[in-house]
């Protein structure tokens, strides 16, 4: 989207700011959970929650191959075909995906 001129860093900052307001406004902490909920901080915990989301977003995503390898002890034939198709697709069109955000 950046390369196409459809989005820029300023729009990203604005979107993050407005989405934070939307999330923290729509999902205030329940008042009936007492001191134990969110560490007893209530609404004050919202910035820490958003920061935790941002930190998680900065971490590399799991390797794409885990989509296929972490479910079955032995991979069924239909998943093997899907895995091969994905590998071929990414070899051909990989530059169109943010693969640098994934573990190798």
What does the secondary structure layout of this molecule look like, with pairings?
Layout: H1 9-26, H2 46-58, H3 66-69, H4 77-93
Report on this model:
Belongs to the BCKDHA family. One of its GO terms (biological process) is branched-chain amino acid catabolic process. The chain is mainly α and 104 residues long. It folds into two domains: 9-58, no CATH class; 66-101. The protein is 50% helix and 0% strand. It has four helices and no strands. It has helices at 9-26, 46-58, 66-69, 77-93.
Count of individual helical segments: 4
Q: Main sheet?
A: none
Number of strands: 0
If you compute it from the alpha carbons, what radius of gyration comes out, rounded to the nearest whole angstrom?
20 Å
Give the overall shape, derived from the CA principal axes: extended
Oligomer: single chain
Q: Would you list the SSEs in sequence order as H and E?
A: HHHH
Overall mean confidence score, pLDDT: 80
Low-confidence parts lasting 5 or more residues at pLDDT below 50? none
Structural class: mainly alpha
Distance between the termini: 24 Å
Please estimate the helix content: 40-55%
Overall number of structural domains? 2
Percentage beta strand: under 5%
